[in-house]
Predict the structure.
Amino acid sequence: MARLESRRPALTLDTEVTYLKGVGPVRAQHFARLGIRTAGDLLRHVPHRYEDASTVQPIRSLSPGMEATVLGRVISKGILPTRKGLRVFSAVLKDDTGMIEASWPGQAYLDRTIQKGDLLLAAGPVRFFHGRQLVPREFVNLGADDTGTAGGRVLAVYPATEGLSFKVIRGLVEQHLPVLLPLVHEYLPPAVLAEAGVPPLPEALRLVHRPSSVAEAMTGRSRLAFEELLFVQILHRRAKALAREPREGRAFENRRDLTAKLKASLPFELTGAQARAVREIVADMTSPHRMHRLLQGDVGSGKTVVGLFAAMLAMENGWQVAFMAPTELLAEQHVRTATRLLAPLGLAPVLLTGSLGARVRREAEAVMADPAPALVIGTHALVSDRARFAKLGLVIVDEQHRFGVEQRAALGGKGDRPDVLLMSATPIPRSLALTLYGDLDLSVLDERPPGRQPITTALRAGTARGRVLDFVRRQVEAGRQAYVVYPVIAESEKTDLKAATTMYEQLAAGELAGLRVALLHGRLKGDEKDDIMRRFLAGTVDVLVATTVIEVGIDVPNATVMVIEHPERFGLSQLHQLRGRVGRGAEQSYCILLGDVSPETAERLRVFVESEDGFEIARADLAQRGMGDLFGDRQSGMPGFRIADPLRDEALNAAAGIAADRILAADPALERKEHLALRRTLTTQFQRGLELFRVG
Ligand code: ADP
Ligand code: MG
């Protein structure tokens, strides 16, 4: 008789990391923070640097003025205060040849992570300070149990995160590599690889994870970089090819009726950039081609009003406009803005969201069913089956990257080839935008409305919490308002993150007692959220404790302070979006990142602290996290450069360009058998891929 065995499901690259031996739910949560959800993701989690232990110098040989790499055990350590009040973490490192003091100014928190007996690999300048002293620029803590890193081995250092050290990651990769690697198959045509001179994927992954020399690691890396560059080149070429295909649409007439009235009644002058964008849009809409334009502008650059001009042009020609926003809060705010700005024209927008009462919803649907000109502002409720437009001529999608391809296409499908205006506050460098959106025309708002002051931004340690909250209180007493943002809504046993709900209670009863504090997060009902926002807008709430639900679009000029706790949990672009909620009025505004972060995180955040240039921040974000993350969701994002650097990898990039040309010249829609695997990768991994290589 056959024996019944309880069998585990076979391991695949899609198996969630939590089921891997040695991971489990807690580590899986930490992994998720690194964008790693599946075994395949872990395999693709590539070391961001290699420490070549063969270059380690004997401690005795160090002298002031040198750049040195040492491998030493901590034999004593402590925190030393300096006269200037700076706290310095200091440790004495010892190897077989001698001892040296290593010193980390301003990084007292290292006292918690570095223990006596730990083996450190540290690199940095040696200076003269009461004798020789090493000031590590970089270091890796190999722990107390590590004995044999020396001897010419190359040490792979993985991007890590709080709660998940690079050592643990390295151990898990080592453990699972033998089982995972055989699951990986090359999907690029062999001729393409041969021509680019890069190894096949399984080999490349083996080399990056377990190189026997740095050169080997770089060879492996070249395959992964090539793939990224190839994806971008293919999408770019495909987008450009599609752009050349005629797009039939309708030509509106520039009647200068509603548009002129809007211009005359606006409470401000358009910026030069806004005026240019409006002109570009008018040119598109009055041409017989279907408009397909992306309006890009940093937070606060004034995209909404540009959208309203487009809407007025469609309406003065007798057409309806659908204006879609990613959240109810934002749709409601757009309705308020449009109501205010269009009142002098005798027009009022209509709101359509999922949480409308049955009667109000029926009223909105009646407006849509009537062919008279109308501006309907809403959420994705606009693409539901029930939403039918009688005469839709223009579609505007705000924060376009927050919608799926299908949702955007569905909204376009609500009319007979309506013009399309996409708006995005995610500033990506122009060249990259052209690369990835070659099928769209691009308008850029690169100018801010006048009269805005720079926002003072700082990173403060947890010890400064009292002082920071005191500052919030003083600002409120001076008549201002503030946001305090947390990464999560509720506390969980698995993480020790401060959460909005608990902190709201603590702050309201403690540090901010006596102030009018309110709580805002995504799990509140639409009308509750709306109510709280309305109170904040009206100034009857002083401090809004919130999650990133306030990230998009909220506009309260009297708010001058943005405190963000656990800044390590946010991406640079997301922080920039949050900071954009203040600095909207005439008063000096402040953005304070509050928390004890690792030196790596502090370094990552530095670009944000030092710059207010959304493009510069986006570029750094791109380099740090890859394009997909920049767009919120790695799975639906666009390919980016996690590994490749188009400048440094110039030769590879050129090879990728040639390969892309060759592939697409023979097979523009990637329909041939030898390209099906490539097409599957492009369309499942990247929204843009899906958009550009849709079947049918
Ligand atoms: P975003 O581009 O982030 O969507 P908004 O459209 O919300 O920006 O505009 C931000 C704020 O700037 C709003 O209060 C808006 O009324 C104001 N604004 C827009 N254009 C101008 C302008 N040309 N001059 C002065 N204020 C403007
Ligand atoms: Mg906006």
About this structure: The chain has four domains: 1-45+159-184, 50-157, 185-452+651-696, 456-611. The pocket of magnesium ion (ligand 2) is lined by residues 303-304, 398, 553 (CB under 6 Å). The longest strand covers residues 67-81.
